[in-house]
């Protein structure tokens, strides 16, 4: 699998972390939104990323996905240096992303949203000009039933409620089966009942499908419950890393959240 | 079932129940190819049943022509979300290509028409690399710029006949053009219909709905946009290639007609952009209306066009087909989704 032929293209540390960032820095004019940040996510982990508003969490995600180009530092995906790759290529290499504001294709039916997410076959002309086959259609129905939205396959996705759209976006990632899934505030703006479901879905995906997940979250109960490890950002800097218990008892973290320097 | 009858109170709803409309869409969806074949046969009948060359045949041929152009516009404008004001540039390039090849190089009409399509595609590939980087208003204005530039170039060149254009005297009969435009239209409808159910078609729609999300999902959107743009230029270029002979005359004003560009956008929007039938229905409807108004109230057709566009955009932004589809799916949503949402406690307000 590994293309270790080109030394410059691979992770110098040689490890096979699913994701590793090395000194990633991103500036907007005078503001350093992400400041020399190292993170690492191992296969099968659920890793949390927390920090006050404006800490640079989404910006770090954007640097990982290639939506933004980091000013300094490198990003390695499965040991490959993807820092200078275009965004679509990084995604195709196995990186999935759910957005903070929830984004699905509103004027397409729910079914088409899911079909689109299926990765198999790639961008070959033959695959592009083929109609979705029965196994793919069956998988779509299965996933919709799984997230309790069965029967909505032919509905225009934009008609669904915010929470339902979030579930569709999640189902799309289950369809795509990325090596690593970045989730930006999955619990934001959804009601407690649905949050319970979502936690269950994420757990199941992690345990049964071995999905590796890196998630930003403001809901502390949620992230403490679900994450194996947590990174904390404040003012663009990584100020702590550890298990949920360690983070909860870390003085610097408490200070950052209380606004003390 | 009780919820259904409650919300079915409106007169419109009782006359045309949404589920009946939905069923109609279901039938159309399931028998798309048969419907297309049947339409092709119906379209082919009039000359066989005695429609003579003349005014009516010309008007119907023009309807087919506009349907080709509106559907082509919609591949990029409606399916992919890039509203172009420069599609007539492909048309003009096609028109001049056949005119020049036939008049100056004595190439046969069918060959010239194929070449016209290919030249338009090559032009689209080059131009697309630049304009498809732009979005929204910038894209619209850039494409308009391309149209005006192409028009100006044809005015200044010798080979295009300059401002006075080119006259073509030896042309096939009106019946030939009738079937030619019909044939191209049917093929194009088949292609668009087929593509709209493939992964390629889904990707175009995804680009329209949220290009950044599509990129984040691993699609190289430039590649797909350019492919759609080239496909649109192929049909537009071929149509233009036939038009110069159909019209027996071509000049910069006719070939690169900005008013037509607006007209065909109006047709696609009116009928329902992002669908196969919408732009075609819109073209037939609007061209008929324009033709009637032009005959009855000379000079008022542009005013009418303006009114029609404004009313459509405000009242039925989805167009005829889109509005109907939305109406039809309404019941579906309340029957299944609306209920499901209530069951899972969707309406519970946030606590904390
Ligand atoms: N495109 C941009 N241009 C300029 N400044 C930006 C841009 N994106 C983010 N910023 C700034 O960078 C800082 C970090 O923003 P970011 O969105 O990464 O924070 P966050 O940790 O995700 O916050 P939140 O929890 O509110 O989502 C903020 O001060 C923000 O205003
Ligand atoms: Mg954020």
Write up what this structure looks like.
The complex is a heterodimer of chains A (261) and B (352). Chain A is globular. With 261 residues, chain A is an alpha/beta fold. Chain A is built from ten helices and ten strands. In chain A, 35% of the residues lie in helices and 23% in strands. In chain A, strands 6-7-8-3-9-10 form a six-stranded mixed beta sheet, sandwiched between helices. A four-stranded antiparallel beta sheet of chain A has the order 2-1-4-5, with helices on one face. In chain B, helix 5 packs across helix 14, helix 6 packs across helix 12 and helix 10 crosses helix 12. A two-stranded antiparallel ribbon of chain B has the order 1-2. Chain B has a domain of 206 residues. The longest helix of chain B has 26 residues. Chain B is an all-alpha fold and 352 residues long. The relative contact order of chain B is 0.15. At the A-B interface, helix 2, helix 3, helix 6 and helix 7 of A face helix 10, helix 11 and helix 17 of B. The site of adenosine-5'-triphosphate has 12 residues of chain A, from strand 2 and helix 1. The site of magnesium ion has 4 residues of chain A, from helix 1.
Gist?
With 261 residues, chain A is of the alpha/beta class. Chain A has helices at 57-65, 87-92, 110-117, 125-128, 134-146, 162-176, 192-208, 220-226, 244-248, 251-258, and strands at 19-28, 31-41, 46-50, 72-77, 80-81, 95-98, 180-184, 212-216, 229-234, 237-242. Chain B is built from 17 helices and two strands.
Keywords:
heterodimer, A: 261 residues, alpha/beta, six-stranded mixed beta sheet, 10 helices, 35% helix, B: 352 residues, mainly alpha, 17 helices, disordered N terminus, binds adenosine-5'-triphosphate, binds magnesium ion
């Amino acid at each position: 699998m590994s293309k270790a032929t080109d030394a410059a293209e691979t992770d110098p540390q040689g490890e096979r972390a699913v994701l590793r960032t090395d000194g990633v820095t991103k500036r907007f004019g005078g503001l350093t939104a992400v400041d020399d940040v190292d993170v690492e996510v191992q296969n099968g982990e659920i890793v949390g990323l927390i920090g006050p508003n404006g800490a640079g969490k989404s910006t770090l995600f954007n640097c990982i996905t290639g939506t933004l180009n980091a000013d300094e530092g490198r990003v390695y995906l499965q040991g490959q240096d993807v820092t200078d790759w275009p965004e679509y290529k990084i995604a195709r290499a196995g990186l999935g992303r759910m957005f903070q504001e929830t984004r699905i294709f509103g004027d397409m039916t729910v079914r088409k949203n899911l079909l689109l997410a299926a990765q198999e076959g790639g961008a070959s002309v033959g695959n592009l000009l083929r109609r979705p086959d029965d196994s793919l259609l069956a998988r779509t129905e299965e996933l919709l039933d799984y997230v309790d939205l069965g029967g909505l396959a032919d509905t225009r996705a934009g008609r669904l409620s915010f929470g339902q759209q979030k579930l569709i976006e999640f189902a799309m990632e289950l369809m795509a089966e990325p090596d690593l899934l970045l989730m930006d505030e999955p619990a934001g703006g959804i009601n407690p009942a649905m949050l319970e479901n979502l936690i269950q879905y994420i757990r199941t995906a992690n345990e049964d499908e071995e999905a590796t997940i890196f998630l930003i979250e403001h809901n502390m109960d949620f992230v403490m419950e679900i994450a194996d490890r947590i990174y904390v950002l404040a003012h663009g800097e990584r100020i702590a890393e550890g298990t949920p218990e360690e983070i909860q008892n870390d003085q610097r973290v408490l200070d950052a959240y209380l606004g003390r320097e | 079932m009780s919820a259904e009858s409650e919300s079915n109170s409106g007169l419109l709803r009782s006359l045309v129940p949404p589920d009946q409309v939905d069923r109609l869409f279901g039938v159309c969806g399931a028998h798309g190819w048969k419907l297309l074949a049947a339409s092709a046969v119906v379209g082919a009948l009039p000359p066989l049943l005695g429609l003579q060359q003349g005014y009516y045949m010309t008007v119907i041929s023009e309807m087919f022509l506009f349907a080709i152009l509106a559907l082509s516009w919609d591949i990029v404008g409606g399916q992919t979300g890039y509203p172009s004001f420069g599609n007539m540039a492909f048309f003009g390039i096609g028109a001049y290509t056949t005119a020049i090849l036939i008049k100056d190089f004595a190439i046969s009409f069918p060959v010239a028409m194929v070449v016209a399509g290919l030249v338009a595609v090559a032009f689209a590939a080059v131009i697309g690399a630049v304009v498809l980087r732009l979005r929204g208003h910038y894209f619209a204005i850039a494409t308009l710029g391309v149209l005006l530039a192409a028009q100006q170039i044809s005015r200044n060149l010798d080979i295009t006949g300059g401002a006075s254009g080119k006259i073509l005297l030896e042309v096939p009969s009106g019946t030939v053009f009738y079937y030619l435009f019909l044939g191209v239209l049917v093929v194009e409808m088949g292609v668009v219909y087929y593509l709209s159910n493939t992964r390629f078609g889904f990707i175009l729609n995804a680009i329209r709905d949220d290009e950044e999300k599509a990129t984040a999902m691993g699609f190289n959107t430039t590649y797909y946009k350019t492919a759609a743009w080239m496909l649109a230029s192929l049909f537009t270029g071929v149509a233009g290639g036939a038009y110069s002979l159909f019209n027996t005359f071509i000049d910069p004003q006719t070939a690169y007609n900005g008013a037509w560009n607006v007209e065909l956008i109006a047709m696609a929007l009116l009928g329902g952009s992002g669908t196969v039938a919408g732009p075609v229905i819109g073209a037939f409807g609007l061209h008929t209306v324009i033709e009637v108004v032009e005959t009855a109230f000379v000079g008022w057709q542009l005013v009418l066009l303006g009114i029609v566009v404004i009313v459509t955009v405000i009242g039925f932004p989805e167009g005829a087909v889109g509005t109907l589809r939305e109406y039809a799916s309404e019941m579906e949503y309340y029957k299944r989704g609306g209920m499901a949402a209530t069951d899972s406690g969707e309406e519970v307000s946030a606590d904390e």
